[in-house]
Amino acid sequence: xxxxxxxxxxxxxxxxxxxAGIIGSVFTSSSLDTWYILLEKPSYxxxxxxxxxxxxxxxxLMGISLYLVWEKGLQYKEVKTGVFLFGLQLVLNTLWSLxxxxxxxxxxxxxxxxxxxxAILLTIIQFWKISKSASLLLVPYILWVSFAALLNYQIWVLxx
Length: 160
Prior knowledge:
The protein has helices at 7-38, 51-70, 77-102, 106-130, 132-136, 139-158. The protein is mainly α and 160 residues long.
């Protein structure tokens, strides 16, 4: 009934996701106190302190989700597909920070976040076939990215 937890694998999955966040934060931190602060933002823009705990939590949930799928066995095609889609959305997640904060382009970041959203949805659908728990762990992530896409769009429009 209970499955042993492969702690090194679980930690590796969480660390991989957190590293994506750390890489993205390199681009973010260089623009927060300069370019970003000068942008006009919608009234529903969260305060800056909200982003760190939200993303840390989301990356942890993503890592647990990846672990649950990986534990089903990489020898299976549906698991390989799920892990590939997960990797794709993780790369797209990091790319968004580069486009928005690094290149200071809300327009290209908005186009990219739409692709990211689709990649997350495809990952959720694929994970559902393998582990419903893994799939459900990604729901807060797609909800946050949906909000981020709306925020990104408004920032682009307000600053065009």
